[in-house]
Amino acid sequence: MSQLPPSLLVIYTGGTLGMVEGARGLEPGRDFSQRLQQALQSLPPARRESLPDFEIMETSRPIDSSGATPGDWQDLARLVASQHTRYRGFVILHGTDTLAWTASSLAFQLQGIDRPVVVTGAMRPLGAPSSDALDNVEDALRFAAQPGLQEVAVCFAGKLLRGVRARKWHTYAPDAFISPNCPPLGEIVDHQAILFDDRGLDMPQRGAPRFELQDYRALGASPVARIVLWPGIAPHLVADWLNDDRIHGALLEVWGGGNAPEDSMLLGALAKATGEGKLLAAISQCPLGTIAIGAYAAGRGLADAGVLSGDDMTAEAVMSKLIHLLAQPLPSDERRRRFVTPLVGER
Ligand code: ASP
User: Of the candidates 333, 97, 221, 192, which has an alpha carbon nearest to the alpha carbon of residue 325?
Assistant: First the structure.
């Protein structure tokens, strides 16, 4: 690789990490750069001096991540893409609630990235008693300076996870993120970033940027539905979702290893939707393991209805991949082929 630029770019998007007390409770604060520089002064000098150089940028409107939309994912990816050759790596500071969604989407948009994009946040604001914010920023900076990391990753509580495999798993514990079906990519040991051997993406998936910066807003407000089955679910409810012209795809969260009711109305609604070119994919409601739709007679109907297997993907990865594929001018069979093909280590 040619000489890397000297600095990292830190992009502050909002979230608890940078929140301050407002009239109605915690709200995203401004002047983050100044507050972070001040907080870094509290680190022991040796640690502070061993941090990589970085510049900080704030998005125009820092938000609570509960308000993030695919349009925000798109803006963030475009920002990284536009700055990509100017920095050796990126740290994105983000609210934890939808951090895994943003990280998943960034992975699909920034395919082939040849440097680190590390997303982090915090469970408590910078400067609050026992805040995890400064540690998480410090750790993320250290990982973002590792040229061996060439993908979108989530750094939280000293662990580095594949971004498109990560999930928020705890409502308040500092160690709030896991990647249920993928081992960590690295760990902070004695304030040093250690990347585990052979856990990074395989060569065709990294090292040669081929960004796919689609216009997600053009798909409309909510192009993909997330439908979680429950015992006794009425098929007309599923049909109502899928008959809506504004819905172009759906994630179905089924049972166990790929099981769903053998209900002709339900399966008929799914088959009708796939026949219309809607992109349907299934994962399990079990947090661990993969699915094999069709292993049970009852689940076989899903495959016959054209529902694709989401394998062991997270819901965040499936939803963001469906949106990403639907935003591209592709024939339906090519979208289906790409959905079942691992693009960025998501399955
Ligand atoms: N509500 C916050 C957010 O997601 C939670 C957090 O950042 O931890 O923006």
Answer: 333
Residue-wise pLDDT tens digits, 220-241: 989 999 999 999 999 999 999 9
> Where do the DSSP E strands lie in the chain?
8-14, 19-22, 25-28, 54-63, 89-93, 117-120, 152-156, 159-162, 167-168, 177-178, 186-189, 192-195, 224-228, 249-254, 279-284, 308-309
Class for the domain spanning 8-205: alpha beta
pLDDT of residue 71 exceeding 90: yes
- CB of 29 shorter than 6 A to ligand 1: no
Model pTM above 0.90: yes
> Is pLDDT larger for residue 204 or for residue 49?
49
- CATH 3.40.50.40 residue window(s) in the chain: 218-339
For 127-140, how does the pLDDT look when each residue is reduced to its tens digit (9 = 90+)?
Answer: 999 999 999 999 99
Whether 96 is in the pocket of ligand 1, judged by its Cβ within 6 Å, is yes
Residues ≥6 apart with Cβ < 8 Å to 4: 88, 115, 147
CATH architecture of 218-339: 3-Layer(aba) Sandwich (3.40)
**Cβ of 95 less than 6 Å from ligand 1:** yes
User: Catalytic positions, please?
Assistant: 96
Token pair for 232 = 């006794």
